[in-house]
Design goal:
With 260 residues, this protein is an all-alpha fold. Helices cover 67% and strands 0% of the residues. It is globular and about 65 Å long.
Length: 260
């Protein structure tokens, strides 16, 4: 940011024009994915749709990988926005659990954007690797944080640590304990294990529907999904003790000193 931008808080004309151009390129790339599928994405095709040269497009995205990273990041952010909106827009008197609403927001976006959903969760694009701890990772963690909050927000760390789950191997427990805090590292290993199981349950049902494998259910797919999410939520919560957990019980579940 230039000194003038710092003083006024307003991006320069050049930056605003660049932001507009980047937005147009991303929109054109998304349209290309919708029409031809993620695997057919190319800078040349996107540039042609915008009446640009490939050389001009390189000024904004130096390679296909840079464009794919931006598209994946935007898809995750749009999906997270849809999930959060599904929770925030619920009336105060709703009897539907917020976690179920979040899951339905996830399902709704996936069904409305199957090609973009395939971009982030389908067959990996050949020769593409997302940057380690890059924007795609951060965007995914933003979405998972919403689900963590709605699934476990009412429980204390001690309660989550005492969750009734099959005994974890020492290597898995150590791995879960060393995940980054903004991933699942903020959860005790038993809760992280429950979260991964719940995520797989929800995501698996959505994938089956988006790719047409549950079409035989017809118009009842939304009802089946809501019932499955309610049952899943009840099962997860039934494994977490209610009430205050003593320091001794917390130590026993963690094999360490109790939290302060």
């Amino acid at each position: 940011m230039t000194s003038d931008e710092s003083a006024t808080g307003t991006p320069s004309l050049r930056r605003r024009r660049r932001a507009v151009a980047v937005g147009e390129i991303l929109t054109a790339a998304e349209c290309h994915i919708v029409e031809h599928g993620p695997a057919a994405l190319s800078l040349r095709a996107v540039a042609r749709s915008l009446a640009m040269t490939v050389q001009a497009l390189y000024h904004y995205f130096p390679s296909r990988d840079h464009l794919v990273t931006a598209l994946v990041t935007k898809a995750y952010d749009d999906l997270a926005d849809a999930v959060q909106a599904a929770v925030d827009s619920a009336p105060d008197d709703t009897v539907v659990p917020r976690l179920v609403l979040a899951a339905e927001g996830y399902r709704g976006w996936a069904n409305a954007n199957p090609e973009r959903f395939q971009l982030i969760y389908g067959t990996p694009l050949r020769h593409y690797e997302a940057p380690v701890e890059g924007p795609t990772t951060q965007a995914l963690r933003r979405m998972s944080a919403i689900f963590r909050h709605e699934l476990f927000g009412e429980f204390s760390t001690a309660q989550l640590a005492a969750a009734d789950t099959p005994e974890l191997s020492s290597s898995l427990q150590a791995h879960l304990e060393h995940l980054p805090p903004d991933a699942l590292g903020s959860l005790p290993p038993p809760a992280a294990s429950l979260f991964l199981s719940a995520w797989g349950h929800m995501h698996g049902l959505v994938v089956l529907e988006v790719f047409g494998h549950t079409a035989f259910i017809g118009a009842h797919q939304a009802e089946v999904f809501r019932a499955a999410m309610r049952n899943m939520l009840e099962d997860v919560h039934s494994r977490i003790p209610t009430g205050r957990i003593s320091g001794e019980a917390w130590c026993e579940s963690r094999g360490t000193a109790p939290p302060i």
